[in-house]
Write a structure and sequence with these properties.
With 170 residues, the protein is mostly beta strands. The protein is built from two helices and eleven strands. The chain has a six-stranded mixed β-sheet with strand order 3-2-1-9-10-11, with helices on one face. The protein has a five-stranded mixed β-sheet with strand order 4-5-6-8-7, with helices on one face. Bound molecules: manganese (II) ion (MN). The site of manganese (II) ion has 6 residues, from loops.
Length: 170
């Protein structure tokens, strides 16, 4: 199963539209981790499962989502409510409470993924305003199998970044 994850587009609606068009029928799930700065009833969110971020003021957004797939239970939150700037301890409690195999978040605009105690934590970075040591505008696709997660980060040209591919055993 493939899950496409994007975050922190900050008003850049067009790239979300392009991503959804480019990857329709190629992934099983589109997820936006917040700070889209779009209205919560934007038609794009019939495609993307979305949460609200600290820059989303529309009351129609949920703060957290739990998505069930045949292989995973995916916890999604923007991250500001889980203090992800200060590490993953709080989000790990929330993910554990929800029996999640994957925790997705954004907020820091920094690309990152790791597996701790059989749970994948992933930040797709920002598709518009990257920060931190890896200055690349990015989104991620998680390819989930029963044994592994393989993560590939992509750029705005829909091409994979050769140096941003990761594989983890479950
Ligand atoms: Mn943001």
């Amino acid at each position: 199963m493939k899950y496409l994850v994007v975050s922190d587009s900050h008003g850049d609606r067009q790239i979300l539209e392009e991503i959804s068009r480019q990857f329709q029928n190629k992934v099983d799930l589109f997820i936006h981790c917040g700070d889209s700065e779009l209205p919560a009833n934007d038609p794009l969110f019939e495609i993307f499962q979305v949460v609200g971020g600290n820059c989303d003021f529309d009351a129609g957004y949920k703060e957290r989502l739990v998505l069930q797939t045949p292989l995973d239970r995916i916890y999604v939150t923007h991250g500001h409510l889980s203090n992800v700037r200060f590490g993953l301890s709080q989000i790990s409690y929330e993910a554990a409470e929800n029996d999640a195999t994957i925790a997705l978040f954004g907020h820091t605009h920094q690309i990152g993924c790791e597996v701790v105690q059989h749970r994948l934590y992933l930040n797709p970075g920002s598709i518009s305003q990257p920060r931190g040591p890896i200055q690349k505008k990015a989104f991620a696709i998680i390819d989930a199998s029963p044994e592994q997660w393989t993560i590939q980060y992509y750029g705005r040209d829909f091409q994979p970044y050769g140096d941003l591919k990761f594989s983890f055993d479950r």
